[in-house]
Amino acid sequence: GIVDLVGDRAGVVIPSDNVPSLAGELRRLLTDAGDFARVRRGAHAARARLATWEEASARMEQALLRLAGA
After folding, report:
1. Are 12 and 25 in contact (CB under 8 A)?
2. Contact 6, 44 (CB under 8 A)
3. Is the pTM higher than 0.70?
């Protein structure tokens, strides 16, 4: 899942159908400077580990070509 990809400090995970939870988390991040800073640091750290869009799309292209037998 997303936590495996970016870690548990790069954001918050909430159910897609839980609007009150989303609103609460957004409110918390907008009003709690410490939590916002923690998530920001986590996001920057996760970004440093992830492929660029160009790298990711090139990998996807190669995988699709292999599947297509090209």
Report:
1. yes
2. no
3. no
What are the backbone dihedrals phi and psi of residue 67, each rounded to the nearest 5 degrees, phi first? -65, -35
Which pLDDT belongs to residue 21?
Answer: 96
59: helix, strand or coil: helix
Dist. CA 29–CA 52, nearest whole Å: 26
| pLDDT tens digits, one per residue of 12-61 | 888 889 999 999 999 999 999 999 999 999 999 988 888 899 999 999 99
Where do we find the tokens 């995988």? 63
What kind and span of H or E run contains 65?
helix 53-68
Nearest-5° Cα angle at 31, 27 to 37: 110
